[in-house]
Amino acid sequence: AQSVTQLDSHVSVSEGTPVLLRCNYSSSYSPSLFWYVQHPNKGLQLLLKYTSAATLVKGINGFEAEFKKSETSFHLTKPSAHMSDAAEYFCVVYGNKLVFGAGTILRVKS
Amino acid sequence: DGGITQSPKYLFRKEGQNVTLSCEQNLNHDAMYWYRQDPGQGLRLIYYSQIVNDFQKGDIAEGYSVSREKKESFPLTVTSAQKNPTAFYLCASSGFLGGNTIYFGEGSWLTVV
């Protein structure tokens, strides 16, 4: 069995401040983990993925995530938020099938 | 450019009608998926297909049907048996089932009027 929990349904930050989107997972397998971003009325775009190589994964647009097996977490971070980062973010785990988190809506204030 | 094309982007359906959403990919991917997205519920898997002429039910297959006659095409039919079809539908594909990166189309909005 596997599951994904995104701990915050909404996150609000000011432009230029750090972003932290939290994701915990459970899986009976050695999972692959992904973060996707979705802008309004658009499909999902891959930000980054972890597939058992380096635990710190760098993605597009300055985002990165760290795989912590002991904490079963895969939190997404960015040092400095930009207005264009406002979107919904999904954490996804693959053990023997894909499971999506419920999503976190990121709001960036000017 | 390689990618996934969904059509139509917006579709209105009268109650009792079947409608078909198109999904085409030119990425030469073996696996294709259909997801439904409702606010606050993330994505839920409707059907998926690993190879041509084969497909499996996902978590919410009732009221939907699919076909996979060609590798590049995976149309979804929303039947009149689907009680609450108004939603955003996303088609996706990957090199093999899960594990590899999944690529998504732009989505289709279906509204029942």
Describe, in plain words, how this protein is organized in 3D:
Chain A has 110 residues and is mostly beta strands. Chain A is built from no helices and 12 strands. The model of chain A has no long low-confidence stretch (mean pLDDT 92). Chain B has 113 residues and is mostly beta strands. Chain B is globular and about 35 Å long. The mean pLDDT of chain B is 90.
The share of residues in helices of chain A is under 10%
**Largest β-sheet summary of chain A:** 6 strands, mixed
The structure class of chain B reads: mainly beta
Shape of chain A: globular
**Helix percent band of chain B:** under 10%
The number of helical segments of chain A is 0
Q: Summarize the biggest pleated sheet of chain B.
A: 7 strands, mixed
Structural class of chain A: mainly beta
| Quaternary organisation | heterodimer
Note the topology.
The complex is a heterodimer of chains A (110) and B (113).
Chain A: E1 2-6, E2 10-14, E3 19-21, E4 23-27, E5 32-38, E6 44-50, E7 56-58, E8 64-68, E9 73-78, E10 87-94, E11 98-100, E12 104-109
Chain B: E1 4-7, E2 10-13, E3 19-25, E4 31-37, E5 43-49, E6 56-57, E7 64-66, E8 76-78, E9 87-94, E10 102-104, E11 108-112
Short description:
The complex is a heterodimer of chains A (110) and B (113). Chain A is an all-beta fold and 110 residues long. Chain A is built from no helices and 12 strands.
Observed structural traits:
heterodimer; A: 110 residues; mainly beta; four-stranded antiparallel β-sheet; globular; B: 113 residues; seven-stranded mixed β-sheet; 11 strands; 0% helix
